Amino acid sequence: MIEITHLKKSFGKQEVLKDVSFKIQKGQVVTILGPSGSGKTTFLRCINFLERAEEGELRIGDTRINLRKASRKEILNVRRRTAFVFQNYGLFYHKTALQNVMEGLVVVQKIPKDEARKRAEAALEWVGLSNRKDFYPSQLSGGQQQRVGIARAVALNPEVILFDEPTSALDPEWVGETLDVIKKVAKKGITMIIVTHEMSFAEEVSDKVVFMDGGSVVEEGTPKEIFTNPKEERTKKFLARIIPQDMYYI
Amino acid sequence: MGKYFDFERFIDTIPKIIPQLSVTFSIVLVSMIVGTVLAIAVAVLRIQRIPVLHQILGIYISFMRGTPLLVQMMVVYYGLPLLVQGLFGININTWSTIIFVDIAFILNEGAFLGEIFRSAILSIPPIQSEAGYSIGMTRLQTFTRIVLPQTIRIIIPSYGVDLIGVFQNTSLVFTIGGVLDIMGKAKTLGTATGHALEAYLVVALIFIILSLILRFLFFLINQKLQYERR
Amino acid sequence: MSFSSENFFDSLQGAIAYLPVTFKLTIYTFVISLFIGGTIAIIRNYKVPMISQFLAWFVTIYNGLPLMVALVIYNLLFMTNYDNVARFFHISKTISEINPVIVGYFSLILSSSCSYSETIRGALQSIEQVQYEAGYAIGLSKLQTLYRIILPQLVPVAIPGLINNLVGTIKGTNLVSAIGILEIMGGALTPCALSYSYLEGYLAAALVYWLFSFVLETLAKQIEVRSTKFRRQIV
């Protein structure tokens, strides 16, 4: 359903993504793992044109788009079919939780306000935040803000949701509730690409795991293949290093 | 000092000067409204860093910042008719003086407010725009619905200071002659009666009181619009 | 009306001839106001009883008074009261012998002191309480803490605002033309009185003012770069 081929991106002289190709089927959950600096966040941002790739093609449904030359119209088309959950939540500071969720529905999807409000309220209830709907982001905890971010993404009813390290900025105490909500999204059958450091979560929720390092995909497979029987040396090393720490946090 | 300052004359002068506040206010209002629109355009264009235009705007801002308003006003007053005559062949010498004053004030505000807006826009974290784009908003929608409202809340204190500055700057307008704002009226009264001090003191009092009121007003607005209540 | 480059150059010469007047007005006003404004800010910062309340009121009210209005009023008072004052102090000079520039200085310094004091006070407030406490803790007196700990940290914070104030003062000196003091603008306009064409004069004045504030601002920014050295090392 989404396919990215030969994606390349550098910042100045530094090559961040070297020829990355990637595929996800409808309804699948794919997690991308990798050490920091491996390019996984940049990869996700390139899909949503928050970064402009130097080379590569994106296929979403039947649409093919050149990642380098995409026009404003094409970019808008991709963005309207996808949703993005940011590491630092990315809630609009000047809008309440409810207004944050409503914004895209009203402005982008042109849904009448009353209808949009109902949908936004339902989305907030779904993430367990009905009682916080009139709060501003600054009045919410990190975990609550991220759940609003997820509600905002889900309410748009996108073809795919991109999660960029959704729990990395959170205090440990809020990680659990946020992961629970993401699991709930996965159960809905929504297509998801998740960049994360949470190993046990990745193992539980994913249909496919992609391991990236140094700007390329090193290995991909089912969670079982990657976590219990990694083939590549770099994957083994990474998992050996990260899993004990991960356990410690949970 | 009795003969220079007469309290009764002072009181009598007040009702003669107050009506001219409408002229003062009209200058402030026009230059703030049009100036704000110009300032936002200047700020956005500066941030885009379009070659040539960026440099031209840089020179414009530097000029407005580095030269006295009085001189700017006179350059517009004497220069604009010449420029318009040369470019379009239209004679605008018949326009009333206050239009030239308004134009000078607007150009001045475009630069000063432009810089205020520019730094405020740049202080909005990029993730705010990214979040707007990610939910499928166009650039214009993201700017007007996400960035601008947040910018406005940030600049309210500086905007208030700037507005009071513009209000006080209207005290220069009378030097051009032919504009009867409160200062211009005071001068006329002084010439007519030979007692200028009382009139100017009334003007001083008006400026002080209104500046204080404006300051307080902006303090209240700022309090009210703080959405980041912690 | 037309533009004559010959008149423009005459005006430019006139403006440059009077540049020293503007320069002196600017520098004296700046230095004296910096001192007075700094003193006001420190008194208010340390909440010296009575004086600080008085200064707070005075600064707030005086900031509401435009320089031009103040200038015109002081000039009026000066002209009408000079004879009495002169007699009182046994000054033998008549008013025509006295340079009205003292009225200009008085107005400029008073208004600049008030605005500078606000800039400096804002910078003072940005310095954390713990800096004072640390000074006292190692046994420094209040004055020593102020000079050795607070002021050096204050300078880099205050400079950007003070540069704005400086540019404001340069432009403020232009207003003394209203009480008949010849400065850059007056100098530039002198040749215009003959030609009845003023655009050249105002353009020449604008150019000289522009260059003057550009040079002063650039110099001031050099000082800013130096004063922030210790901050850059931290970062």
Task: Write up what this structure looks like.
The complex is a heterotrimer of chains A (about 250), B (about 230) and C (about 240). Chain A is of the alpha/beta class. In chain A, about 40% of the residues lie in helices and about 25% in strands. Chain A has helices spanning about 40-45, 70-80, 95-110, 115-125, 140-155, 170-185, 200-205, 225-230, 235-250; strands at about 1-10, 15-25, 30-35, 55-60, 65, 80-85, 160-165, 190-195, 210-215, 215-220. In chain A, helix 3 (about 95-110) crosses helix 4. The radius of gyration of chain A is 18 Å and the shape is globular. The relative contact order of chain A is 0.17. By secondary structure, chain B is mainly alpha-helical. Chain B has a domain at about 25-180: Orthogonal Bundle (MetI-like fold). Chain B has 9 helices and no strands. Chain B has helices at about 5-15, 20-50, 55-65, 70-90, 95-125, 125-135, 140-170, 180-195, 195-225. In chain B, helix 4 crosses helix 5 and helix 7 runs antiparallel to helix 9. Chain B starts with 6 loop residues before the first helix and ends in a 6-residue tail after the last helix. The mean pLDDT of chain B is about 90. In chain C, about 80% of the residues lie in helices and about 0% in strands. Chain C is built from 11 helices and no strands. In chain C, helix 2 crosses helix 3 (about 50-60) and helix 2 (about 20-45) packs antiparallel against helix 7 (about 140-175). Chain C is flat. Chains in contact: A-B, B-C. The interface of B and C includes residues 63, 79 and 171 of B.
